[in-house]
Amino acid sequence: MDSTRKPAVAPRARFLVAMRPEAATGESAQEMARLLGMKPETARDVLGGSLPRVVASRSALHEAESLARVLTARGRESIVWDREVPGVSLFQAERLMLEGGQFVFEQRSRARRIIPARDVQCIVDLRLRSESHGAGKAALFGGKTDSAEAGQQFPDRALLIVPEPGLGDPGVLSTRTVDTSKDRFPGVAASKLLQEAVMKARALVPARVVEVRTSPAVLGYQDEDGDALEWVLQLFARLPPRTAAG
């Protein structure tokens, strides 16, 4: 018998529950484990983290909402979303500029999304590492590739700017969308442009920038959830983190 084989993962139900951990309280880890259907040691890891993550799924909306209310009442702010309904609209940009204290996202069509610095709730500097040890995940983690480097795959990185509630859609600049059409080595150019964008954001609103270095599985992602980068961005756009972690 192969002891290294991973156990099968139960398919996700329709309604997901995501939780933002808070500082540890005196609550019982065993009680929370029972509530979430986890092993006590797994629940301790979830409660002790600082990144938002999906902790449960339910087949009925009222069950998911009931769990989210219980978690929120216990100081674990939680949200519910329907996997069959389109997520938050993210403005995927090819360029990001700073003009007069405003973040200006621009697409090739010249469509723009402007977020004033005063309206920013959170900025997430996301570096998403692959957990694959082979080439099979190349399509899932679709960072830019440099043909001159024999197909070298660069990890996904994204800058997500989330405005205060009611002030419009979040803007995203990522290594997948940034314009590198004039560069010989697109992977290197994309990484450089993302780093420059992060530095500009830190210079304008340093207290609101959160650096996150993580992998999808840490946040509760499963293969059936679709594109990993899009899924992780949706999680942070819905429930921005309060503290830096990576």
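Next protein, fold it too.
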Amino acid sequence: MSLTFDLIINPIILLAGVIVGAIIGYGAGKAKLAKSQSRIVQLENELMSSNVETLEAQRAYVALERGLKDQSIPVISMKISGSKENPKEKASK
């Protein structure tokens, strides 16, 4: 008695399997796309809030700068006018 393996393919079952696989693949792709789009929207909102914070900080900086310009603060020069020799020349001698 010899063992034989006869492969019988039923076209109806094969067609049904292909259709079910296509539906499952379409659903998985649609879910992945929806997840990606929600992540993009989340990142865009985060970027917008970051831009708003940056603009508020710049607005505060400009207001502070204007306030300081309006005040007359005397500025004393910190340059020390010592000898005209270069300090590097002293170190190399």
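About the second fold: The chain is about 70% helix and 0% strand.
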